[in-house]
């Protein structure tokens, strides 16, 4: 029951935990304790490994001076955990962005040079370099705030994103072209311009393989097309998905599997599709109706893989539900999700996974983003009720303003979401949202475009707007944060790609 360290140990039972120095071996206290109590050793080892316990110096004079901060511990904690409590994501974000270390947070926020001095005196990292979490905390002081145009077109831009390694940028435009750029010297240089085939209205979605060798695109057409990166012949390989019983077909969302062996798609017929590239055939098609008696098939607007396993996928659509599917357990004749989430008041436009198989975010026409934990799903009755009552909200987000009660009613009964982010507009198109990169931010933020032409960055834990950037004259449909650089590229219906970087504010002398 009592926490370790509440009572000072007797002098004859000194422990590395209470010497006032940070041990280079974090498990040294465990081994020392193990000489006396094997059970306590096992428990403490588990707590340290899982991140639930962090070893700190004792409160002697020298150690206290190292961790002294102008802000009280309660004030620091209130900034990061007053909204999301009793969930692992709070500690995960703290660990990945150095929130748990007060000396690092203080120096990074107040003085970068001071943080470097801390490293030089081996107080930050005894191995001589900054840890990934410390780097994330340092870079959070320099979020992008200034933009310049790097590309402009006469037609609307529908999407734009960096490749997983950050070396390329993929842009799709309503002029029926997909352009691939090399990312060099903080700018874009086009090296391939592909004219898309059989485009119905516009290119709806694109996806790049993890090895940067191929990309796919979809539109209002029965096929998805596969193209090679850097190829001169512009061969477009058809990926046939349309079933014979569907008249008009559009895969609204498409994704390569992490191993590039499959293509995942969500269609306007309310179905999810899986295409096996090795066998060159569609292998899976199933309805996402969750057993509802409603005969109407709601569009599946978003699909995403949960992690790198290629087995668990997320989906979201106009039925307002986020659903989790395990493809290994799937029965196509009677498909049942392994988990589902009800809480949005209108259709879902996009889903992004944190990449750990636990957390995901969804953007919705109810003008909000929600954060979900797949271990805390809605019950089946709530899912069915949400789907059966979706028709009560009758408005068309493409042409009408949202109902006045959106954003005012708070969480509905049974809504298991961890956080709701409000402050952006989702109108006229399927706007996208993302977790910020792990390398530069520790996934501390959620960011999205806005129908008013803004780019909005939210704090994951508090839900507060961290940055609100105005740089476009029309809706920002897609935004992409470089995986390894503090750079954001936005894609707007005003026909421009804007390149966002940090620029120091000029102070008056």
List keywords for this structure.
509 residues, single chain, alpha+beta, 31% strand, 4-stranded antiparallel β-sheet
Low-confidence stretches: 1-27, 54-82, 100-105
Largest sheet, strands/sense/barrel: 4 strands, antiparallel
Strand order of the largest sheet: 1-28-27-26
Q: Classify the oligomer.
A: single chain
Q: What is the number of E strands?
A: 28
Strand residue percentage: 25-35%
Measured between the Cα atoms of the first and last residue, the distance is 58 Å
- The chain-level structural class is alpha+beta
pLDDT average, as an integer?
A: 82
Helix proportion: 10-25%
User: What shape does the CA trace take?
Assistant: globular
Radius of gyration: 25 Å
Q: Report the total helices.
A: 10
How would you describe the overall organization of this protein?
This protein has 509 residues and is α+β, with helices and mostly antiparallel strands. It has helices at residues 28-34, 38-49, 61-66, 73-81, 88-96, 102-110, 112-120, 132-139, 380-388, 438-441; strands at residues 146-152, 157-162, 168-173, 177-184, 187-195, 205-208, 214-218, 223-228, 237-240, 251-256, 262-267, 271-276, 281-287, 300-305, 312-317, 322-326, 339-341, 348-353, 359-364, 368-373, 419-422, 433-435, 445-449, 454-459, 465-470, 476-481, 488-492, 496-501. Strands 1-28-27-26 form a four-stranded antiparallel beta sheet, with no helix packed on it.
């Amino acid at each position: 029951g009592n926490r370790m360290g509440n009572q000072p140990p007797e002098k004859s039972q000194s422990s590395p935990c209470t010497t006032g120095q940070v041990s280079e071996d974090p498990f040294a206290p465990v081994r020392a304790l193990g000489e006396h109590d094997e059970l306590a050793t096992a428990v403490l080892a588990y707590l340290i490994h899982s991140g639930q316990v962090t070893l700190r110096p004792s409160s002697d004079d020298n150690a206290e001076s190292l961790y002294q901060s102008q802000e009280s511990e309660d004030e620091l904690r209130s900034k990061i955990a007053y909204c999301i409590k009793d969930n692992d994501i709070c500690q995960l974000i703290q660990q990945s962005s150095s929130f748990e270390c007060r000396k690092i947070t203080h120096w990074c926020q107040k003085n970068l040079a001071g943080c470097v001095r801390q490293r030089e005196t081996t107080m930050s990292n005894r191995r001589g370099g900054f840890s990934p979490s410390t780097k994330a905390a340092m870079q959070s002081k320099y979020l992008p705030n200034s933009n310049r145009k790097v590309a402009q077109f006469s037609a609307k831009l529908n999407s734009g994103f960096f490749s997983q390694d950050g070396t390329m940028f993929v842009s799709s435009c309503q002029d029926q072209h997909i352009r691939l750029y090399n990312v060099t010297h903080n700018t874009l240089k086009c090296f391939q311009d592909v004219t898309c085939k059989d485009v119905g209205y516009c290119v709806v979605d694109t996806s790049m393989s993890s090895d940067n060798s191929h990309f796919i695109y979809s539109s209002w057409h029965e096929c998805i097309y596969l193209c090679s990166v850097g190829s001169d012949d512009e061969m477009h390989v058809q990926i046939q998905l349309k079933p014979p019983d569907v008249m008009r077909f559009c895969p609204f969302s498409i994704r390569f599997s992490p191993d590039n062996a499959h293509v995942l798609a969500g269609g306007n017929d309310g179905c999810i599709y899986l295409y096996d590239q090795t066998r060159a055939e569609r292998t899976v098609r199933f309805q996402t109706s969750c057993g509802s008696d409603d005969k109407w098939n709601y569009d599946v607007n978003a699909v995403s893989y949960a992690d790198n396993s290629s087995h668990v996928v997320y989906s979201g659509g106009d039925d307002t539900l986020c659903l989790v599917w395990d493809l290994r357990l799937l029965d196509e004749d009677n498909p049942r999700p392994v988990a589902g989430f009800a809480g949005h008041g209108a259709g879902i436009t996009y889903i992004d996974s944190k990449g750990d198989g636990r957390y995901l975010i969804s953007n919705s026409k109810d003008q909000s983003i929600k954060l979900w934990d797949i271990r805390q799903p809605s019950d089946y009755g709530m899912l069915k009720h949400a789907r059966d009552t979706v028709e009560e909200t009758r408005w068309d987000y493409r042409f009408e303003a949202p109902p006045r009660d959106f954003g005012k009613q708070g969480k509905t009964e049974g809504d298991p979401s961890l956080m709701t982010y409000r402050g952006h507009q989702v109108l006229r198109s399927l706007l996208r949202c993302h977790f910020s990169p792990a390398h530069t931010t520790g996934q501390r933020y959620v960011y999205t475009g806005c129908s008013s032409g803004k780019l909005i960055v939210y704090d994951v834990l508090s839900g507060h707007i961290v940055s609100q950037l105005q740089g476009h004259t029309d809706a920002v449909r897609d935004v992409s944060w470089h995986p390894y650089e503090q750079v954001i590229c936005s894609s707007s219906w005003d026909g421009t790609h804007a390149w966002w970087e940090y620029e120091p504010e000029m102070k008056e002398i």
